[in-house]
Design brief:
Blueprint: H1 2-6, H2 8-39, H3 42-67, H4 72-96, H5 101-122, H6 125-129, H7 135-163, H8 166-185, H9 200-213, H10 215-231, H11 237-245, H12 249-268, H13 271-275, H14 279-299, H15 303-330, H16 337-365, H17 368-389, H18 391-394, H19 440-445
Helix pairs in contact: 2-3, 2-7, 2-8, 3-5, 3-9, 3-16, 4-5, 4-8, 5-16, 7-12, 7-15, 10-14, 10-15, 10-16, 10-17, 11-12, 12-15, 14-15, 14-17, 16-17
Length: about 450
Amino acid sequence: MRPVRTSPVYRRLLIGRTVSTLGAFMTMVTVMYQVWDTTHSSVWSGAVGLAQAVPLVGVGLFAGAWVDRADRRRVYLLATVGQAVCSLLLAVQGFAGPLPVLPVLALVAAQSACAAVAAPAAGVFVPRLLPKDQVAAGLALNQVSGQTMMLLGPAVAGLVLGVWGVGVCYLLDAVSFAVAFYGAFGLPPLPPEGEASRPGLRGVADGLRFLTGHRVVRGALVTDLAATVLAMPVGLFPLVNEERFGGDPRTLGLFLSALAVGGVTATAFSGPVTRLARPGPVMLCASGGWGVSLALFGLSTHAWAGLGALVVAGAADAVAVLSRTTIVQTRTPDALLGRVTAAETVVGQAGPHLGNLRAGVTAGWTSGATALVLGGLLCLAAVATVAGRTPELRGGGGDGGAEGVPAARGAGGAGGFPADGVPGAVKAPAAGDRARDLTRSDRRTG
């Protein structure tokens, strides 16, 4: 809690972020409810997720390059206004009478595109506002606030929907963006430190070269992909519930709650972990624990044992996400933070979707339990491989060499990187770090 006590600016940002996250989960539930109530079609309901994911992926990388050329505070405020306008338009159609589904999905996509711009802009806030020794604690507070709103948001949305209807839900979301705007309005200008991003595809390519060339950052992101693509369990929950627990809907509902309870608990008590200052080994152990816990869930035949395994999995996931985020942020130069944040958002969107697809295909050939066990073991093997091939990560998450990165063009040109993977003209500041808006725990229910 030290960042909250010592930094009034961070405290305002945290309050704004928490309130806007609550509004985001309310809108997510409200859109799904409205689309289903209008169409009674599972296809259209699934299209809601597509309308959210496609702009995040399509806009994200280019937004990151833009953010690394501009004042991040101004970009964030503009993107927040755009999101609020979309929520207001959704509220208008909710009060006036529901629009057809396609215009509603268009507004959802527009809001998601604004979020794709806001996320990399917000990525610089924590490292630029907090001392280096408080960065991990600030990230943990962001994470626990997000997970708590993930638990509360759907419940609050259901209550508001039942009493006042969809228009009020959307209006409350618009108000939540006003709180987020206030939280960031008092920030000083936050231009990139170092050489600004090159425009267009060249700037995007520079960011991708950094991600692939920096051994520690690359290892952290590959570990995240291993955990999501190889062991994502959510798509298997209905099938496993049917196979092992008789298809009881009460049990199915508890699966996601168990993951969230484990995540919130672990993050709330993460102080000893963040003070270790060894995020690399912590991330590797927690990611391996995620895989093992899901394999045990696949083997469990008793509901309470299965729920216990999911609580442990949720806790391991939260610690892995926190540690990985700390690694990526402390090893990314400020001038590249926008592009790194955007790329990580793309990974965060694609990984779970691919993981659920993999799980479904595997379950179609075998069974839900087998797919869970196999995915958990594959995740464990992948994490062990990353640990074996990345001693810099295994040794604590310190800065490693950047194998395969081209030499700098001239004197620290933006198109090349020296041996440590950092552009010559944009060395990271002492507090170089990045804040992540969506954790993998958020994505499990989003």
